[in-house]
Amino acid sequence: xxxxxxxxxxxxxxxxxxxxxxxxxxxxxxxxxxxxxxxxxxxxxxxxxxxxxxxxxxxxxxxxxxxxxxxxxxxxxxxxxxxxxxxxxxxxxxxxxxxxxxxxxxxxxxxxxxxxxxxxxxxxxxxxxxxxxxxxxxxxxxxxxxxxxxxxxxxxxxxxxxxxxxxxxxxxxxxxxxxxxxxxxxxxxxxxxxxxxxxxxxxxxxxxxxxxxxxxxxxxxxxxxxxxxxxxxxxxxxxxxxxxxxxxxxxxxxxxxxxxxxxxxxxxxxxxxxxxxxxxxxxxxxxxxxxxxxxxxxxxxxxxxxxxxxxxxxxxxxxxxxxxxxxxxxxxxxxxxxxxxxxxxxxxxxxxxxxxxxxxxxxxxxxxxxxxxxxxxxxxxxxxxxxxxxxxxxxxxxxxxxxxxxxxxxxxxxxxxxxxxxxxxxxxxxxxxxxxxxxxxxxxxxxxxxxxxxxxxxxxxxxxxxxxxxxxxxxxxxxxxxxxxxxxxxxxxxxxxxxxxxxxxxxxxxxx
Amino acid sequence: xxxxxxxxxxxxxxxxxxxxxxxxxxxxxxxxxxxxxxxxxxxxxxxxxxxxxxxxxxxxxxxxxxxxxxxxxxxxxxxxxxxxxxxxxxxxxxxxxxxxxxxxxxxxxxxxxxxxxxxxxxxxxxxxxxxxxxxxxxxxxxxxxxxxxxxxxxxxxxxxxxxxxxxxxxxxxxxxxxxxxxxxxxxxxxxxxxxxxxxxxxxxxxxxxxxxxxxxxxxxxxxxxxxxxxxxxxxxxxxxxxxxxxxxxxxxxxxxxxxxxxxxxxxxxxxxxxxxxxxxxxxxxxxxxxxxxxxxxxxxxxxxxxxxxxxxxxxxxxxxxxxxxxxxxxxxxxxxxxxxxxxxxxxxxxxxxxxxxxxxxxxxxxxxxxxxxxxxxxxxxxxxxxxxxxxxxxxxxxxxxxxxxxxxxxxxxxxxxxxxxxxxxx
Lengths: 512, 426
Prior knowledge:
Shape of chain B: globular
Number of domains of chain A: 2
Mean pLDDT of chain B: 96
Strand content of chain A: 15-25%
Strand content of chain B: 15-25%
Number of helices of chain A: 16
Structural class of chain B: alpha/beta
Number of domains of chain B: 2
CATH class of the largest domain in chain A: Alpha Beta
CATH topology of the largest domain in chain B: Aspartate Aminotransferase, domain 2
Strand order of the largest sheet of chain A: 10-13-14-9-8-15-16
Radius of gyration of chain B: 21 Å
CATH superfamily of the largest domain in chain B: Type I PLP-dependent aspartate aminotransferase-like (Major domain)
Low-confidence stretches of chain A: 485-489
Number of strands of chain B: 17
CATH class of the largest domain in chain B: Alpha Beta
CATH architecture of the largest domain in chain A: 3-Layer(aba) Sandwich
Oligomer: heterodimer
CATH architecture of the largest domain in chain B: 3-Layer(aba) Sandwich
Structural class of chain A: alpha/beta
Mean pLDDT of chain A: 92
Number of helices of chain B: 16
CATH topology of the largest domain in chain A: Aldehyde Dehydrogenase, Chain A, domain 1
Low-confidence stretches of chain B: none
């Protein structure tokens, strides 16, 4: 008997891919249905989904940390709550469904959902991203197919199914929320290039974002962060230190908006370090800094094992002790890409450099972002508008959080930027969007535009619902002139021709 | 020039001439006369392409043969993979492919014990009728007037006289027919306790999909039990998820003694059929397993394709798609009927099995032609030409369903015009 221990005897289709393809068809059905759903029904579905996610915020926070090994449960709970009920409440008064009538411009705007959203979910913020992208999709009447990172697939699949059940119970069509259970990179690339996808929302590593843009489908992709943090002499040093340490330790720096390098004015640098130390930052000695550098950046590249780990763990792995520390501060002399510690680290290791003034702060910030972080985030702790303006005008970031922690400031939770799990890095960062991702990015508008001449009056559209218009009266039946393309002959002519041929054939047979 | 490598045709006319000369003159000419000059060339998904290049959406599906569409990639890939290892196999011996498919079929419905394979629907019906006769030691077979079960010796005898008289294949002494939905007639014919089997399509396809009255099928089954008759469900057109469940009888809560499946079971690429029997009807498989044999029945390549078909049909994603297509046409056809109420007078629907009724005895022939001219291929019911068989596939996409409805709507004025040209009904 032939053993089949390793490889099947038959080459068979990839069932996972084929099933994923069926999910896209399901999503298209759901999208068609959602596009014809009114505001009240959408609101009910969105609220039900948000409530279901919110109720399990802790459950999934614990699960995500357990499965991925990244982050802090308490902080993930906050994010899961903010990205469920929080985000729904934030946009509650906005209407992405009803036509907008603008009499002054003589225009009516009809919301047009994208259709099927393919949402890529990163391993770093899995559940919050599942909640966030699903709710943004539903608010704007899109169906969503979630593709979790393989490293977080179990929690993402469960979370997505929880949301899908809630949606269905609230009246959403089958297929409105779906998830890929067995994600692989080839599968995700296949899905991204499928024409049944209307919009890809890609959060993840640069490779996956680039792949999204290469796919040929419309995509909203975001690049990696690497935030410089300016602290000048006009800032409240104590508050700045508190904010930086809290932000840098938030969820163990897993948000891509977390602080990467502090650029401290020389005059206040020592005081800032002392205040940070008071907030449980461990200030590394040069030897410890070297050890951290070696741990984080190996010969083969960045060590992914450190992502989202706490400061004590990192210190231990590096070979020293920093018990009770919330973050590790690694002073560096050089703020250039060749100093690896000024790159994105996604763990509570904060590089610290001294600068002579605003000009040097700007050039340092530009230098460190040359390698990574373009278009992403920066922070400034300052009360000098000139410094803030000079910094913001020159560094290649699209959001500069001022006197706020960068993690939650740039991501919009502690500022008035849109709270978001997806941070547009703009043209500079290889993205088509420069804003924090909001529901507005998931919907476009068909515009009814009247002649602007004053003599042409605008229609009375108030109170009319395009989903529920009165039945049109039966008009006269128009008979289209049809021409069958059968080798240039119409059906009757062809029959004539055939009869002739048959007759000739018969005669030939009879004559033989 | 149509050069297929093995053979070539100058053009479509060349094909018509040869088809008339060597293949089937009447059938070829029939389609000419009803205005459907179709010669299927390329085919892909739910689309057919005429030799002229014209695209047609296929809602005929050959009775569900193309349930998954034409040349579904996953089915094709399965067959290609199987061809590197298997061939038809040898029916004398047990085989992995037949064992695997038998198990899948037997487990797809409660009460079943064995699956016996054929190459086509008629062969499976033949097996079913023989198995029922074996089990009951009775000869008589009851079927429905205008029912349809194939064209082989026993199967054709159950059907319409159009198909039997010409070949002297009717056997009125052994094959009795009763009207559909008439439970009293059924009682009368079964009460003699000499009937081996009642065979019926769960929804008679060739008769235009008249829906069984509430409780009718259950009452038939109860009568069978009462009078010792085997109930054979012909699921050739209603099986394989086309009614929203794997088998049509499941939607009516009927448990047959035997059910027959074919057409779509072969995924549209490898012919295979099966009679699935309960323990009693399968008794001969213990007594003399070679009493019925078939060289091409249960060919292993077909078994592998069918196994894949069964696997695909059970995916939640597919089931959800069937429900979406079902809802879409339920709503869409109700709307169409409102808009075209002068000619379009009724919809019969169970899942993606639809019969559309038009207000003329030959109405569906005209509608079929009008749809054909509008890029949709759906065939009238041979035995009730008022009714158009409208058979969407289980994997149809939302976009294509909308296209079908738009084309249907656009074809109605033409249908109206063609109907007006027909002689008035008596």
